[in-house]
Write a structure and sequence with these properties.
mainly beta; Ribosomal Protein L25, Chain P; RNA Polymerase Alpha Subunit, Chain A, domain 2; seven-stranded mixed sheet
């Protein structure tokens, strides 16, 4: 995904307020061997981009001064009660430097699992993203979690995830990712079919 940016020459809180009144958003790009770079963004463009999951978990193409720069979204500051973006932080991405970022989990085949088809279980998605480390070229947009073999009362853990080549998960390998919960009183065979959460 790409977005447009322009170099920001003025800094400070009063300058930032003027930018926001003009429909612009102050932002910064840091990391790599270069100095932090102050930029500004179009509010409407960045607001709609931030509503897309891929914008939060992909290497982005920042269009600045006629060139494309690979960056990662690092943090967003929102207004306390208005749908307004106040500030955005990006990190430069270097092809030969590993990056650490969060990647969403894509749960598949839940309705085919024995837990749902035979046990009438509900599948609870305990976590919806994991932090990974990889080179930029290896970073996946998402990681599939295959629930097709999940039995009633069982759980899947981070250690069970099938990761793309060159990708490692940061954190607790014993963390539960999904679990099959049988409702109180159980369920008749077949009643739970299709009960998996989307």
């Amino acid at each position: 995904m790409q977005f447009n940016a322009t170099t920001r020459s003025v800094q400070g809180s009063s300058a930032s307020r003027r930018l926001r009144r003009a429909g612009r958003v102050p932002a910064i790009v840091y990391g790599g061997t270069e100095q932090p770079l102050n930029i500004e963004l179009d509010h409407n463009e960045i607001y709609h981009a931030l509503r897309k999951e891929a914008f939060h978990a992909s290497i982005l193409s920042m269009q600045l001064d006629g060139k494309s720069h690979p960056v990662l979204l690092r943090s967003v500051q929102w207004h306390a009660y208005k749908p307004q973006v106040l500030h955005v932080d990006f990190q430069r991405v270097l092809a030969n430097e590993a990056i650490t970022t969060k990647v969403p989990l894509n749960f598949i085949n839940g309705d085919q699992s024995p837990a749902v088809k035979l046990g009438g279980a509900m599948i609870s998605h305990v976590v919806t993203e994991v932090e990974v480390k990889s080179l930029p070229a290896d970073l996946p947009a998402s990681i599939d979690v295959d629930l097709s073999s999940l039995q009633s009362g069982e759980s899947l853990h981070v250690s069970s995830l099938v990761l793309p080549a060159g990708v490692t998960v940061i954190g607790d390998a014993a963390q539960v990712v999904a679990t099959a919960i049988v409702p109180a009183g159980g369920a008749a065979e077949g009643e739970g079919e299709g009960a998996a959460e989307a």
